[in-house]
Design brief:
The complex is a heterodimer of chains A (365) and B (425). Chain A is built from 13 helices and eight strands. In chain B, strands 8, 9, 12, 13 and 14 form a five-stranded antiparallel sheet that branches. Classes of the chains: A alpha/beta (365), B alpha+beta (425). Bound molecules: zinc ion (3 copies).
Chain lengths: 365, 425
């Protein structure tokens, strides 16, 4: 169990507490401090002295999340490595359930946990994000997992076979480290699954500004890793080629990237050439989206069964707003960051990774 | 020899300058014990003059000291203070490996029995009561069992406590974010990344060393922050650094208050502490009151009692307590206050010797008061100082039957002082 983070000290005691409550007990807890400048180190020391964690590491100078995770991976011992974000909170059976699929199926390299929203009832923005998580993570990943095209495991909660991680020599640098490791595993022909009964709760951004920043970071990784680094997965002449892997990448590119640009062109056409039918088309579109959202919401409800909590049950009231949230707001943010990444390589200057690493890669590529 | 002189009774004697005449070379500590050191062979005229002048000054200062009115010996605090007064009003620590404490005040050492930590407490007490002022010189860690300062600081495994640790640099290869110990990268004398198989270019260019790790050869645990443990070279006690005694060693100079004390003697610390809470009479007034009680008993048959008790080893307790002495004395004062009535009066004779007059109290009642006070003081000292106090006590009745002179009565009382067998309840 490893959890890297910078200045996350305040979240750590609660995280450790939720790990101690797990039904699965044989857990080695390693926390990694990535160059914090607050009292995180003191908190780590105290946790170890009290015997609540097994070990901790730290990069005195910040090296990025991947380097922090790799550092602890190098000295971890268990059969499986569970990667957690410091601010997540695990349901008490989460670890047990996330480990289970490794024993159920052969050749499983990684299992992603279901990430749900902790602060649903904060305001409208968190409710919409909660719906979005149910749609994309819960339903989306269950479907991808069944279709064997799952392309991402949340850094917030995912389990990996340690021997496979060691073969890959750990995570790679970059904003897309959660997705990147999955693709590299798939290149080695390991299965990657999603487990909806393994549940971690996370707090989502409560202001539009923070939400936009978070989504910039997420979107850029697509261009960077799917397009630039894993081109080989698309080429049938490559020794790494495998149909499902190619589909994984294509699906991602097609649905997020090409469709986004097609949508812009489509909107332009509507506005400039078909002014008369703009209203009609918008209304039809709205109800189409709405119908899809309702469908996905009820699929999530069925798939999640008992774990669907009170706050999540009341979310249906907000379904009518979802087309605006995902169709207009999120799409705009995403498209803008794709453009920024494609044409300006913006993610190399991403604050999320320290300067020394980013500059290196830019020089390399 | 030096120690013998410093332990003698009168200030005129124990403060005497000491000159060492030696053939060889003395350690800084031993030579600092003397006021002057001459080598037996050649004596340079100028040097000799200079030293003699210094000794002249010491003798002048000794002359200024008023011999105390009473006959009692100066207590340790006053001895040390008077010594500082006569030695240029300043006392400096000396680092010396032959000292048990590693750093010491050699001249003052002679006032104490061998290697006694009370030296540091005494100076703290004098600083606390305003006699001397200290300037920071150094901080020293002392063993918390034997006060030795020769300690071995070692890094140990947080998992199993073993000191058998192997230290290694971590390397972080930027392009692929592999992080591992330097040995992961070592291939045929070159640094090659085990993940991307690239040769490392240079420190700061494509890799850095973000931290140092310590691998335990005993249990295999890897940590970046080993625990620190100390082992005393004298008594072998193991402890963690935060449990050691940390003493600030200072250069001390006499204050004007201290100069006054040095010349005229201290006000007794016990007297000072008790006066704040209790009705303490000068000895003469106390005798007058006893006279009064004697008269009353002769005429009206009133029965009163006089009680005396003495904490015999109070000076040892002071030396052990240092600056916390005042607090102990205040607590003693408070418990005497609780045990007595408003009409009771007391006087203090020598340091640690208290005499109480309990009017309208027959011997039986006085005995209860006496036992209560003595056993409470006993408990207080034993629990807080960790030293068994030696308390002596006696009492006498003022009654019609035997009429005495007040001073005779007190004299007899003091003659009868004897050790109280203290029973722990
Ligand atoms: Zn060990
Ligand atoms: Zn490398
Ligand atoms: Zn010791």
């Amino acid at each position: 169990m490893i959890a890297p983070g910078k200045n996350e000290g305040e979240h750590l005691p609660a995280l450790v507490e939720s790990i101690k409550q797990q039904t699965y007990k044989n857990i080695e807890i390693i926390l990694v401090d990535d160059g914090s400048d607050d009292d995180t180190l003191q908190i780590l020391r105290a946790l170890r002295r009290q015997g609540l964690i097994d070990n901790y590491f730290r990069n005195e100078r910040r090296g990025g999340k991947a380097a922090a995770a790799n550092l602890s991976l190098r000295f971890s011992k268990g059969k499986f490595v569970v990667h957690l974000d410091a601010d997540t909170h695990l349901r008490e059976d989460a670890i047990e359930n996330v480990i289970f699929p490794f024993y159920m199926h052969d050749g499983v390299g990684a299992v992603g946990g279901d990430v749900r929203v902790k602060n649903i009832d904060y305001d409208l923005l968190t409710r919409l994000q909660a719906l979005e998580y149910l749609k994309t993570i819960t339903v989306g990943r269950i479907v991808s997992s069944v279709l064997r095209i799952l392309r991402i495991i949340s850094g917030a909660f995912g389990a990996f076979r340690r021997d496979v991680l060691m073969r890959l020599k750990g995570w790679d640098v970059g904003p897309g480290l959660d997705g990147d490791i999955v693709l590299r595993m798939r290149k080695l022909r390991f299965k990657v699954l999603h487990e909806p009964t393994a549940i971690a709760y996370t707090s989502v951004p409560t202001t539009v500004k923070r939400l936009v920043k978070q989504r910039y970071r997420w979107s850029r990784s697509l261009v960077r890793f799917r397009l630039r680094r894993h081109r080989d997965m698309l080429s049938p002449f490559n020794k790494n080629f495998e149909l499902f892997n190619a589909l994984t990448v294509l699906d991602n590119i097609f649905f997020n990237f090409i469709l986004d640009f097609k949508w812009i062109v489509y909107m332009f056409q509507l506005i400039f050439f078909f002014k008369m039918s703009l209203f009609t088309v918008s209304v039809i579109n709205y109800f189409l989206y709405m119908f899809l959202n309702i469908l996905e919401y009820f699929l999530a409800r069925i798939a999640l069964g008992d774990t669907f909590n009170k706050n999540e049950k009341s979310l249906w009231l907000f379904l009518p707003l979802m087309p605006f949230y995902t169709g207009v707001f999120l799409r705009s943010v995403r498209t803008f960051s794709y453009i920024a990444e494609l044409f300006f390589k913006a993610s190399f200057y991403d604050k999320w990774n320290p300067w020394k690493v980013s500059k290196m890669i830019k020089d390399e590529s | 020899m030096c120690r013998n002189i410093r332990h003698l009774g009168s200030p005129k004697v124990y403060l005497k300058p000491v000159i060492f005449i030696t053939e060889g070379k003395l350690s800084p500590r031993v030579s600092a014990m003397a006021d002057a050191v001459f080598s037996s062979g050649d004596l340079d005229g100028d040097d000799l003059n200079f030293e003699l002048k210094k000794i002249g000054k010491i003798n002048d200062a000794i002359m200024k000291i008023n011999p105390t009115e009473d006959e009692r010996e100066d207590d340790l605090f006053l001895r040390v203070l008077r010594f500082i007064f006569t030695r240029g009003k300043r006392i400096e620590p000396v680092r010396d490996r032959t000292s048990f404490f590693g750093i010491t005040y050699p001249q003052l050492e002679c006032f104490f029995s061998k290697e006694d930590y009370a030296l540091y407490n005494t100076l703290e007490f004098l600083e606390e009561n305003g006699s001397i002022e200290g300037d920071f010189f150094e901080k020293v860690h002392f063993c918390n069992r034997c006060h030795c300062s020769f300690l071995n600081f070692i890094e140990v495994c947080p998992n199993c406590g073993s000191a058998n640790l192997l230290e290694e640099n971590l390397i972080h290869h930027f392009p692929c974010t592999y992080v591992g110990p330097e040995s992961d990268f070592m291939k045929g004398g070159q640094l090659i990344c085990p993940k991307c198989n690239k040769k490392l270019k240079g420190l700061g260019v494509d890799y850095d060393k973000p931290a140092v790790i310590h691998k335990c050869n005993q249990c295999g645990f890897v940590t970046q922050e080993p625990d620190v443990k100390t082992i005393c070279f004298n008594c072998e006690k193991e402890s963690s650094p935060e449990d050691l005694i940390v003493q600030t060693i200072k250069v001390y100079t006499l204050t004007s208050v201290g100069e006054n004390f040095a010349i005229y003697g201290f006000e007794s610390p016990l007297l000072k502490a008790l006066r704040e809470q209790l009705n303490i009479l000068p000895y003469n007034s106390f005798l007058t009151l006893i006279q009064l009680e004697l008269e009353r008993s002769k005429r009206y048959g009133v029965e009163s009692s006089v009680v005396a008790f003495q904490i015999v080893n109070l000076n040892d307790i002071y030396a052990k307590l240092g600056k916390k002495t005042d607090r102990l004395l205040k607590e003693i004062g408070a418990l005497i206050k609780v045990a007595t009535r408003k009409s009771d009066v007391l006087t203090i004779l020598n340091e640690g010797m208290v005499v109480l007059l309990l009017p309208h109290t027959p011997l039986k009642g006085a005995n209860v008061v006496k036992n209560r006070i003595v056993s409470e003081i006993h408990k207080l000292i034993e629990e807080n100082v960790g030293v068994k106090p030696s308390i002596e006590s006696s009492m006498s009745e003022i009654s019609k039957k035997d009429i005495k002179q007040p001073d005779k009565l007190v004299e007899e009382l003091l003659k009868n002082l004897k050790q109280v067998e203290h029973k722990q309840e």
